[in-house]
Amino acid sequence: MGLREDAARLRQDIEDEQNAKLRIALFGQPGSGKSSLINQIVGQPVARTGVTTDTTVEAQIIAHEELLLVDLPGYGTSRFPPNAWMDRFRPEELDLFLCVFAGKFHEADTAFFKELREKGRICLFVRNKLDDLWEDGRTTDELKAEIAADVARQVGAPEQVYFVSCRTREGLSELVDGIKAALEPALQEKYARSAKAFSLAHLEAKKDACEKSVYKYAGLAAANGLNPVPGVNVGVDMSIMYKMFAEIRASYGLTDEKVNKLIPSLLPLGKRVLDYGTKEGIMLLLKKFAGKSASTAVGRFVPIVGQAIAAAAGFGMTVAAGKSYLNDCHELAERILERELGIERQP
Ligand SMILES: Nc1nc2c(ncn2[C@@H]2O[C@H](COP(=O)(O)OP(=O)(O)OP(=O)(O)O)[C@@H](O)[C@H]2O)c(=O)[nH]1
Ligand SMILES: [Mg+2]
């Protein structure tokens, strides 16, 4: 296949990937913390939370990167008797469900869970407000075991229950890993790219998933290279490079606001991430890597980008620029997470 065909296929591939969102739905009793959990998964305050319940009647859909988080209204309430509810929400169009509860576990949730399982859907139980779990004279482990046994009894089989606290962030790393493990590989990559990392292992998975995108975008930018990079005799599609850089930054949650609030020792790296994310910055990086041929590491990506693109003049340069930016974003995110986790770094 020629360059033109490779580029058309790659463009379609990127487009399809972007359109195929990972859909995660949350259901459970009012006030159990569904909206708070959405904010934790995304790593930004995207959903409205509060002590008063505005009894949601419509599903609220929150889009974040490659994720669609669906905040479902109460199932089994008078307004939504179970059948009408099922007709309306088409669970088969959703990839994964989280049954969120706090305090007492409700039978309506079990009924919905069972129906989801019958339809072959993935559903995980999340006991939120772990920080509130307390009873005089009993240990937290005893209380957890009791809750898990209650869930198992109602469902009719042992079920893993994820105990989390949106307040202390305890258990969120395990939940995020559990969600990822339950998904098929292509969706795992989406999840790794879009969800906030609570562990260094997740951050590594994020890097791997982003790297794959870098090759795709770099390939397309090189194949579409109409605008010559000044001083370099190679054209690169700058709008594609710009999109790639913005997506990498977003995947690591490195918003301008977050970067500008960094502690002084991380600020230089933060500024680099912002500066190289501009059109001028990207141009500088491209020039820096001009003449760089695609390295041997490209090998496993050739089937993805195609032979013609892998051999294109600007490909080595666009890949190197993208990877350099990915490394910067990764390093910054790693330093931020290490601080959050209280890990000391040797100077
Ligand atoms: N202590 C504690 N409070 C929490 C936790 N998670 C959420 N909350 C609080 O619980 C209240 C309800 O949280 P929301 O996230 O709005 O709950 P929701 O399930 O979306 O509620 P509705 O949309 O009304 O159904 C808010 O005041 C939150 O701050 C937690 O882990 N621990
Ligand atoms: Mg809510």
Category by helix and strand content: alpha/beta
Strand fraction equals 5-15%
Which strand order spans the largest sheet, edge to edge or round the barrel? Answer: 2-3-1-4-5-6
CATH architecture verdict of the largest domain: 3-Layer(aba) Sandwich
* Major sheet: 6 strands, mixed
Mean pLDDT, rounded to whole units?
A: 89
Elements, N to C (H/E)? HEHEEHEHEHEHHHHHHHHHH
Shape: globular
DSSP strand tally:
6
Measured as a percent range, the helix fraction is 40-55%
Query: Which distinct ligands sit in these coordinates?
Result: guanosine-5'-triphosphate, magnesium ion
Uncertain stretches: none
Overall radius of gyration: 23 Å
Number of helices: 15
CATH class category of the largest domain: Alpha Beta
What number of structural domains do the residues give? Answer: 2
The CATH homologous superfamily name of the largest domain equals P-loop containing nucleotide triphosphate hydrolases
Q: How far apart are the first and last residues' alpha carbons, in Å?
A: 50 Å
Task: Please name the CATH topology of the largest domain.
Answer: Rossmann fold
Task: Name the features.
alpha/beta, 15 helices, binds guanosine-5'-triphosphate, binds magnesium ion, 347 residues
Describe the structure.
With 347 residues, the protein is an alpha/beta fold. Helix content is 52%, strand content 9%. It folds into 2 domains: 169 residues, P-loop containing nucleotide triphosphate hydrolases (Rossmann fold), CATH 3.40.50.300; 145 residues, no CATH class. The chain contains 15 helices and 6 strands. Strands 2-3-1-4-5-6 form a 6-stranded mixed sheet, sandwiched between helices. Helix 4 links the parallel strand 4 and strand 5. The structure holds guanosine-5'-triphosphate and magnesium ion. Guanosine-5'-triphosphate (GTP) binds next to helix 2.
